[in-house]
Specification:
Strands 6-5-4-7-10-15-16 form a seven-stranded mixed β-sheet. It has a four-stranded mixed β-sheet with strand order 11-8-9-14, covered by helices on one side. It has helices at about 35-40, 50-60, 70-85, 95-110, 115-145, 170-180, 195-210, 220-225, 250-260, 295, 335-345; strands at about 5-10, 15, 25-30, 150-155, 185-190, 215, 230-235, 240, 245-250, 265-270, 275, 295-300, 300, 315-320, 325-330, 330-335. It folds into two domains: about 5-140, translation initiation factor eif-2b, domain 1 (Four Helix Bundle (Hemerythrin (Met), subunit A), Up-down Bundle), CATH 1.20.120; about 145-345, Rossmann fold (3-Layer(aba) Sandwich), CATH 3.40.50.10470. Helix 7 links the parallel strand 5 (about 185-190) and strand 6. By secondary structure, it is of the alpha/beta class. It is globular, with a radius of gyration of 20 Å. The chain binds 5-S-methyl-1-O-phosphono-5-thio-D-ribulose.
Length: about 350
Amino acid sequence: MPVSTLVWLGDKIKIIDQTELPLKLKYLEISDIPTLKEAIIKLRIRGAPAIGIVAAFGVCIGIKHIAKDASKDVLFAALKTTISELKQTRPTAVNLAWALDAMFNTAEANRQRSTQTIKEILITKALQMYEEDRADNRRLAKFGAGLIPNNAQIITHCNTGALATVDFGTALGSIFHAHAEGKKLHVWVDETRPLLQGARLNMWELQNEGVDCTLICDNTAAFVMQKFKIDLCIVGADRIAANGDTANKIGTYSLAVLSKHHNIPFYIAAPVSTFDFALEHGEQIPIEERGADEVIQGFGKRIAPKNSRVYSPAFDMTSSSLITAFVTDRGIINPPFEQTIPNILC
Ligand code: MRU
């Protein structure tokens, strides 16, 4: 059974601390906003769908101290502060803003009700989004599995499994579904420098599910494509613009270019909540930059001179021209994306 990366305990959130994997399966209970912000910023919980849903529960935590007879002004002030603080934690994954906006809109739509009722409605809303993410992933994974042939050799990048979502996963979920259907598969796992989501998290999840997998350094993917017959690449997304340009973990773009060169289908698996219809193209997607220490301080010790200048974007942008198709919870989206992506909403 895939793990539960986050659970709502009624007044606090329980998460797996992903920074400890694969050495320790350690849980954290979070009952205040500073701790939640730290957990998101430090990637204790990560992956676009997972940070969206954890932030939705964060809204409930941010207003739990508001007395039931407090005025609506007091409640909405606390709501706005919480939402604005959580939105700033990670800028690229649109699921975060999407989930927080959905929480705010729900509160607004119920403004005429009592403070206590609005607080209860928001918990129900977060739980509903949690269940929807679970169901969306299962549907998406079934569509994705349809693109994976028996005996497939697959390359994937960054973690997109149960750890990155409420349950099961997107790109990895598609692989899990194909595996459960009895297909024989072999997955080449990019280690995903600098924070090693592939090595630490994908290998852990794939091994737990009994899927045959081999870890490679990111710079080995080209040689693997040259030497072996790779059937497809499948990865996740943090934000997809209306024309299909996609931001995902740094290294995704190089994998897409390599796939094009080697004539390998390149699939992006993501729920509809990852599409940002307000952005026309990928250049408008904000790309998070991370601190130098994550590059300089690798593998438990310093691996570069102390004062090394570092450029560490957490994500890159893959042009839609390099993408074969999108796997979503509403089906497979094929080109021409300018026409087919807006149709998802119909
Ligand atoms: O920095 P991370 O680990 O949060 O980045 C995660 C990714 O890039 C994933 O591919 C993406 O969020 C999709 S997770 C289903």
